Amino acid sequence: MAAPVPWACCAVLAAAAAVVYTQRHSSQEAPHVQYERLGSDVTLPCGTANWDAAVTWRVNGTDLAPDLLNGSQLVLRGLELGHSGLYACFHRDSWHLHHQVLLHVGLPPREPVLSCRSNTYPKGFYCSWHLPAPTYIPNTFNVTVLHGSKIMVCEKDPALKNRCHIRYMHLFSTIKYKVSISVSNALGHNATAITFDEFTIVKPDPPENVVARPVPSSPRRLEVTWQTPSTWPDPESFPLKFFLRYRPLILDQWQHVELSDGTAHTITDAYAGKEYIIQVAAKDNEIGTWSDWSVAAHATPWTEEPRHLTTEAQAPETTTSTTSSLAPPPTTKICDPGELGSGGGSSTPSLVRVPVTLALAAAATAASSLLV
Amino acid sequence: MDLRAGDSWGMLACLCTVLWHLPAVPALNRTGDPGPGPSIQKTYDLTRYLEHQLRSLAGTYLNYLGPPFNEPDFNPPRLGAETLPRATVNLDVWRSLNDKLRLTQNYEAYSHLLCYLRGLNRQAATGELRRSLAHFCTSLQGLLGSIAGVMAALGYPLPQPLPGTEPTWAPGPAHSDFLQKMDDFWLLKELQTWLWRSAKDFNRLKKKMQPPAAAVTLHLEAHGF
């Protein structure tokens, strides 16, 4: 029991000593905070010390070369971001800390970029902003929303700090909204404003849960379904129309379909066996602009399962005759063009299977007539 | 012919009185009728057609008025034009409007707006502008008739003007040219907004009138059953 007590005693004594030490060696409680512009020159005086006092400057604990000094003042030319830090000057002989400066190098703000959008019409809209270039120092933003002469409240977004939300009190207004933003930091100030009508900023979120499925027994169809965006509050009174685009992955050109109703569509002109990429966009039926494209869905139309693909895969590239170059598999009848239409129950199943194999063998020949 | 301001407003009042007393469109033939659904759809389609027509008409007219009226950022305070029917409405109030009130508000608004539009035919307007305006007025008349048809099909009476509340738009004694242009600007703006609102109004009516069974049938058909 005796051991812990002396340990605790030592800890307390050490802490006390540290406190006393720092108090003796700092003339100020907190460093002076200073903001300076990138690229400019700055002269840091050593607090209240005389110009000819003998001092040493340190930055973040590292000594600085005396050639930067002008008397007891530190001169920094052509400030770079790396110059930011804690600068401290000490009396050279006593090492007494005389003055500290926390230097932040930054820029005044450029004109902010402001945009507003209503993806929750008719509930309200939101505005978001950003600076086109960083300032490297803290900025404060102030947003005001005017509807005619009436000031409206813009509630800060709980998650995003450069966004705020406005609730519509009235719909179908002829008076424009004016949103102004001002930004300021220690080095400067800037502002901008935008005006718009209620209808022009309506832009829904993209449709959700876009799913594309092949249709059994239909080699050229794809069934696409989606949901109205969950942020759109009232699809009953404010219905959305949709725009679908699709293409096979191997082609660049999109096909487009505009749909005024419903959240499903069947593509009927898909190329057989090709993987497709499909996207959907939404828009209010009458006002505003189209949403961004949804997350893409991928699907390949249904294709028949080829049963004897492994034995027939070693087919020659070109043939003039469709029958002579193939070794017929034991149970499959080669489909001779002359036999087509001659009927017979046994020929029908082979007709289904053979086109797959013949396509491999005679793609360029007149056997294309065999391809259904 | 150089009309004095007093004369043109008198003519306007006269025209508006005539408009209010137009005979109502007879009710739909009840035998095997599909209900008011098709005429609501037709009214909706008319609002879209008119909104499209108005876009080009307003563009031409505002250019005729000249700057600042044709500038996209033009954002004047709403002074004067107090008697214009305003489309703006509180969101909750709009949602809870019953069908009769919804239709009545639309009918009354377009009656007023048509009246003012007819008075817009100004001395200085070009012949082409007068023709476009006249064409638009005819279309707007058609919309009014369509709304009247829906109201009749649903058994609602057409609103009758109370004596003394007929839309007259008496300008002040020194109603300058600029203020007149401001009134024209607000008329076109309000008309455009009403057409957007009507599309939403008729959407709501369409959804309410749609019998649920029909919706299910359509759904089944789409799946090839």
TrEMBL record, chain A:
GO terms for biological process: positive regulation of cell population proliferation. Residues 1-22 form the signal peptide. GO terms for molecular function: ciliary neurotrophic factor receptor activity; interleukin-11 binding; interleukin-11 receptor activity. Residues 311-326 have a biased composition (Low complexity). It is found in: Cell membrane. Residues 301-347 are annotated as: Disordered. InterPro entries: FN3_dom, FN3_sf, Hematopoietin_rcpt_L_F3_CS, Ig-like_dom, Ig-like_dom_sf, Ig-like_fold, Ig_sub, Ig_sub2. Residues 39-89 form the Ig-like domain. It is a lipid-anchor; GPI-anchor. Residues 206-306 form the Fibronectin type-III domain. Pfam families: fn3. Binds to CNTF. The alpha subunit provides the receptor specificity. Belongs to the type I cytokine receptor family. Type 3 subfamily. Its main location: membrane. CDD domains: FN3. One of its GO terms (cellular component) is CNTFR-CLCF1 complex. The gene is CNTFR. This is Ciliary neurotrophic factor receptor subunit alpha. Keywords: Cell membrane, Disulfide bond, Glycoprotein, GPI-anchor, Immunoglobulin domain, Lipoprotein, Membrane, Receptor, Repeat, Signal. Forms a heterotrimer with LIFR and IL6ST. Interacts with heterodimeric neurotropic cytokine composed of CLCF1/CLC and CRLF1/CLF-1. Either alone or in complex with the heterodimer CLCF1-CRLF1 interacts with SORL1; this interaction may promote internalization and lysosomal degradation.
Automatic annotation (TrEMBL), chain B:
One of its GO terms (molecular function) is cytokine activity. Keywords: Cytokine, Glycoprotein, Secreted, Signal. GO terms for biological process: B cell differentiation; cell surface receptor signaling pathway via JAK-STAT; negative regulation of neuron apoptotic process; positive regulation of astrocyte differentiation; positive regulation of B cell proliferation; positive regulation of isotype switching to IgE isotypes. Coiled coil: none annotated. One of its GO terms (cellular component) is CNTFR-CLCF1 complex. It comes from the Eukaryota. Residues 1-27 form the signal peptide. The keyword Secreted applies. It is found in: Secreted. The keyword Glycoprotein applies. InterPro entries: 4_helix_cytokine-like_core (IPR009079), PRF/CT (IPR010681). Belongs to the IL-6 superfamily. Forms a heteromeric complex with cardiotrophin-like cytokine CRLF1/CLF-1; the CRLF1-CLCF1 complex is a ligand for the ciliary neurotrophic factor receptor/CNTFR. The CRLF1-CLCF1 heterodimer binds SORL1 (via N-terminal ectodomain); within this complex, the interaction is mediated predominantly by the CRLF1 moiety. The tripartite signaling complex formed by CRLF1, CLCF1 and CNTFR also binds SORL1. In complex with CRLF1, forms a heterodimeric neurotropic cytokine that plays a crucial role during neuronal development. Also stimulates B-cells. Binds to and activates the ILST/gp130 receptor. This is Cardiotrophin-like cytokine factor 1.
